Amino acid sequence: MTLDLGLILGIESEIIEPNRRLMLVTQYNDQVIAFTIDAAERIHRVSWKNFEPTTNALSHENPYINGIIRLEDHLVLVLDLEYILTTVNPNLGIRLDAEKIKRIESHGNPRDHVRILFIEDSPMIRKMVETQLRGVGFSNIELATNGQEGLDKINEYIKRSGESGQPLSDLVNIVLTDIEMPVMDGLTLCRTIKKDLKLDLPVIVFSSLINDQMILKCKSVGADDWGSKPKIELVMDLIDRFVGDKDEVTN
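Above: the chain's sequence. Below: its structure in token form.
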């Protein structure tokens, strides 16, 4: 797929000779996507520590932007690739067709007792996934926007469990997390849950970055399983497998 990024963003090209434009090639959800761009001056490697999420007002005015990075004496706008691609091609979005919904709903057992901590920095993806999960009965969902926020919630669950004497599973049953996020990424969060806190808490990694190399990284930090966006039905099956009635799960 080839997309004109300037056209999508409503920016008029300054290149006099269109055939001199460059292609920015990316991989997303098992697809190779090329964006036409005017130029590339320099490649910068930056840390998520430099990332600042946009305010609600700016996000509402321009949903293509999800944050800024202060780079030397410049402010660089960070584009939400998932939002752009889903807007251009809704088939790339996270959604279920009628047949998949019917199969997942046929699970038969209630899911409202399953307590999910879902961690995702993209507001659009966060809302889409939450809507789909609730649509098949997962009504107990707590949200976090990055790995650190998710870890803070887990530590709060641990504190509440210790004070009340109730098992941790009464507060959270499973963690569903993206990988690339500001402040703390999903792999670091998973390693902290599994190897530092030593919790018997299932962690599913749900990301558009899943490939053979990333699967090895997921395994190395103790992730229980993983799914590639936008295959939300796979994630639903995994949640059923880890915290549902195993006898009723269809793979």
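The mean pLDDT is 83.
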